[in-house]
Write a structure and sequence with these properties.
Length: 499
Amino acid sequence: MSLLTQKEVGGYLSVVDKVPAVQRKKILQLLELDRVERCRESYLFFVQQMWPVFISGKHHKIMADAFERVARGELKRLIINMPPRHTKSEFASYLLPAWFLGKFPEKKIIQTAHTAELAVGFGRKVRNLVQSDPYKKVFSTELSSDSKAAGRWNTKQGGDYFAIGVGGAVTGKGADILIIDDPHSEQEAKQNNPAVYDDVYEWYTSGPRQRLQPGGAIIIVMTRWAKRDLTGQILKNSSKDGTDDWEVIEFPAILPSGTPLWPGFWKKEELEAVRAEIPVTKWEAQYQQNPTSEEGAIVKREHWRLWEDEDPPECEYLIQSWDTAFEKSNRADYSACTTWGVFQHLNEKGIYQPNIILLDAVKDRLEFPELKKKAFELWKEWNPDTLIIEKRAAGAPLVYELRRMGIPLSEYTPYKGQDKIARVNSIADLFASGVVWRPDKRWAEEVVEEMASFPNGDHDDLVDSTSQALMRFRQGGFITIQSDEQEEPSYFKRRVEYY
């Protein structure tokens, strides 16, 4: 039957209690037929019917649409990267297999998770749902009489469900759909050993990937852990050989607009609390689906030196550097400001040598009036000896406005041919020489991570602000290293209070 329109459903519901019993029975039968057909055709509607307390979000609709395209044979390779506690497993490893076997009881499913125990647990939930009364009112799929094991069972129509953990053998099994749910564990990630990711990829290529039936589909739903995780390696290698064409859907916990991915369940304040409690690398990978890697990094994390004292050193000269966005409506753009100081520090020979320390970092999306106000507040707070603003985007009017307010500053215009990478390369040896410091602060970690992910990261606003400041330090002769030509030293004495 064809589905009723929402208007038709609403019309029937509005009169069902007002008509005679015989007509009421016919209306209820029609509405039930419509409900059943809607469950069969719409995955999201099926979820809502089988899981009455389900809180729907926009990302669920996107996932449901992709799963329906898989079921129709239109999509063969799907990767969904999403944060923890956003119904990843319930959606992909519990309800999806049940819906798919309801539509195609003769098909075969291989379901995997990072442990066999977890995978079998999914199998038990799927089996129990298929045997439940609400499910039987929608689908005619039945289990065969010998389907006793939670992780291995068959349908009377010839279908098959097989659950295994990562590393498990799949010999003799085939799959019309291979579902891989979070193949990496927290314990593996803590090892910080690339080999654990390589082992998972090797298992995938030598095992489950080879069990796919002709025309079969692969669905990978996972939280990102590292550039070398299963998502990363599959995409890297598929682009090399040009075989599998993957559709990738990424769901960051906090969207570029600043709003939560799933506001009906996760409030922004709760996500920000999580963000404040975990390392930047973990937040960016697991919650924002943006793992950073030092492969190809110009400035590596270990090149920074950690200032462990609560108070920073007394600095002789301060530079504040702004990299401004084009406009707030461009949701990918931030304005960023970093403040740096030069101080004297004993080197390995016991000689005082100029070093640099990061004193403050701010990054935000700001309309021009907010940007102007923030720039004035930071200048007043730090009273830098030099204020540098890149004269592009909102920087040009900001230069004009701050000068009109009597604030001395320097414009910075990159000369032609000097791209972002060239600028970072020009200051990279300062980091490698061990003269750049940062405090043990959350905002400082964000600068370190953005530098470590450059030039492959999603954002480089703090990178631009940093390179701009350190280039000025170097060009002004405030700091030199052995690779620099020897020049007459410059001394700048001042006393300031810091964070």
